[in-house]
Structure formats: structure tokens, C-alpha cells
Amino acid sequence: MAKFLADVTVTLHILALLFIGLGGFLAWRWPKVVFVHIFFAVWGVLVNVTPIPCPLTALENYFRHQQGLGDLPGGFNAYYFYDTLFPRSFLPVIAVFALTLLVLSYVGAYQRWRHRDHAHAHAAHLG
Question: Cα separation of 26 and 24, whole Å?
């Protein structure tokens, strides 16, 4: 059971990371998602630049201990991504890419909200 729960935790962690990277684009369709996205984005930055532990990493470590394994060596990102999916030396490029995606998603969301607000105002003016 601990192996299954650890795997579920890994899946949730990956989904959370995808949401941090791409969640701003969901706000194009569902504007209120932006508030949840901001929380996740701030949390993601905090756990990566401060000693605040990520609760999902702690949960996975708990399930790993239940299986007789130790903590994730180096943390979640280091264990699953660095030098596995991409070389650690690519981190600066990935950070710039992620920041660019974030800015584009928020600019796009703002443009869509502004366009929608103008359309609503125009419709109200005509009605």
C-alpha cells in the first residue's frame, strides 16, 4: 500500500508542477483559476528558494520510509528531473522558459479578461 501511495504522491507532485508552469493558461478560460495559480506559483518559488519543505516531498518521503527506503536523494526535482529528464546545467534556461510561459499566460489572460469586460460593457450599453 505504501508503494501505491508513494506513486500517487509522485503523480500529484508532477500535476502540481505542471499546474505551476501552465496554470496561467487555464485562467484564459476560467479567470478565477488565476488566484489558485498564484498561490501554487508562490508556493513553488518558496519551496525552491527557501528552506520551507514541500509537503508533497515530505509525504513521498513518509511513504518511502514505510517501504524501508530513505528520503529522496536531493529532493523531488533532483531525484526525478535533474540529469534524468534534462541536464542540471539546463536549469537557468528552464527557469527563463518557465518565467516566459508565466508572463505570456498572464498577459494572455489579462487581454482576454479586458476583451470580455469591453464586450460586456458594450452589450450593456446597447441593451
Answer: 5
Give whole-number Cα distances, 67 to 3, 9, 23, 82, in Å: 7, 14, 33, 24
Domain count, the chain: 1
- The pTM of this model reads 0.79
CA distance from start to end of the chain: 60
Find the domain containing 121 and state its range: 2-126
- Over the stretch 98-113, which tens digit does the pLDDT of each residue have? 889 989 999 998 898 8
> 9-64, pLDDT tens digit by residue?
999 999 999 998 888 899 888 988 989 999 998 888 898 889 999 999 999 999 99
Largest CA distance in the chain: 69
Which residues make beta-bridge pairs with 82? Answer: 86
Count CB neighbours of 47 within 10 A: 18
Nearest CA-CA partner of 59 in 1, 20, 2, 17: 2
A 10 A CB-CB count for 36 gives: 14
